[in-house]
Specification:
- By secondary structure, this protein is mainly beta.
- It is 8% helix and 55% strand.
- It has helices at 9-15, 166-173, 245-251, 322-325; strands spanning 2-6, 25-35, 38-49, 54-64, 73-84, 104-114, 117-128, 133-145, 153-163, 183-191, 196-206, 212-220, 232-241, 261-270, 273-285, 289-301, 307-318.
- It has a 17-stranded antiparallel β-sheet.
- The protein starts with a strand and ends in a 10-residue tail after the last helix.
């Protein structure tokens, strides 16, 4: 049995993936074994920390391989416990770049499937605070290269996120979103950090008895290493509201008070140049006035505020009395 400590970042860089190399203050103990010319360890229990607030605990076993390889293990199985009081300190352990949203806690298994890469199994990380912006990641990362410019790949991570306010979710994507209340969504990120897909997206937003949105679909992601926005978006959206006013607030447009609103449409394109198609929206009461709109919008912009270009809509109105309909056309009321 051996015990000791290390305060060398060079040792951390040699033994661990880059994402963990900042942890340079280690206390450790375990059993060191030599068998047939191979040097290994078992029963390892190591605790480390860095100056930014990240704390790690590593437990497990491994065998050292060729010291000339970019990563030094021929086999490795370490259970990592992760704890940070702030997001920034643990940012390299996450599969997406997040703003500062609070603590990070979780665990993962670090393995070494090849001489030039690591892998992470049983990845389970919680980020943030449940009453604010809160994210849970679960899954695996199959290939974490330790040399060259290859992207991390073999990613299959399920993401579940809740936000108390829509604006908090906008911070994640660095866009300004209209405020409609709490948001919850989930989906799977599959592929590599260069060219991944966020699939099986399921999102609900809004409060009960108020404006509610439901979104289904997927996003073709850009290069996460450069902060590239999604390359393409393919989403089906349904919307419901007990009255017109929340829709007017969402779009920033003046709309008459007609009553309940229900509808659906599709969003496609890129984040800064989106198209709206298959619009099918109805508003009002059958016994007073019902308006419906079908068609599409060539360009939807979110910045500096929501705006539309190339609107092509077929509008229809049905009312048992012209007294309800004519004011919408600025014609007053019928005698």
């Amino acid at each position: 049995t051996v015990s000791g400590f290390s305060k060398s970042r060079g040792v951390s860089k040699w033994l661990l993936p880059e994402a963990l190399a900042s942890v340079d203050d280690w206390q450790l103990q375990g059993i060191l074994a030599v068998n047939g010319g191979q040097i290994g360890f078992r029963g390892l229990d190591a605790r480390g920390a860095d100056s930014a607030g990240l704390q790690l605990r590593a437990r497990g076993e491994g065998i050292f391989g060729d010291p000339q390889q970019p990563q030094p293990f021929s086999s490795l199985d370490l259970l990592l416990d992760i704890d940070s009081d702030n997001t920034e300190a643990a940012l390299y352990l996450l599969i997406e770049k997040l703003p500062e949203v609070g603590p990070v806690q979780g665990s993962a298994r670090l393995t070494a499937p090849a001489g030039d890469q690591f892998a992470i199994e049983d990845y389970q990380i919680e980020v943030g605070r449940k009453q604010e912006l809160y994210t849970v990641y679960t899954g695996r990362i199959g290939h974490i290269p330790v040399a060259g410019e290859r992207p991390t790949s073999g990613i299959d991570i399920h993401i579940s996120r809740t936000a108390a306010r829509t604006g908090q979710l906008g911070r994640v994507f660095d866009v300004t979103l209209p405020e409609i209340g709490p948001v919850a969504y989930s989906g799977r990120f599959v592929g590599s950090e260069k060219d991944g897909v966020f699939k099986d997206l399921s999102l609900t937003a809004g409060a009960e008895k108020a404006l509610q949105l439901k979104v289904r679909g997927q996003l073709q992601m850009g290069d996460a290493r450069t902060g590239e926005p999604p390359k393409s978006i393919d989403l089906a959206v349904t919307v419901a509201s007990p009255e017109t006013a929340p829709i007017a607030q969402l779009t920033g447009s003046a709309l008459p008070q007609l009553g309940p609103v229900k509808g659906r449409f599709k969003l496609t394109g890129r984040l800064q140049n989106m198209q709206v198609s298959e619009i099918d929206i109805a508003a009002g009461h059958p016994d007073t006035l019902t308006l419906s709109a079908r068609g599409g919008i060539e360009k939807l912009l979110f910045e500096p505020k929501i705006s539309f270009n190339g609107v092509r809509l077929d509008l229809s109105a049905v009312s048992p009395s012209s007294a309800r309909f004519l004011p919408l056309l600025g014609l007053g009321t019928a005698d």
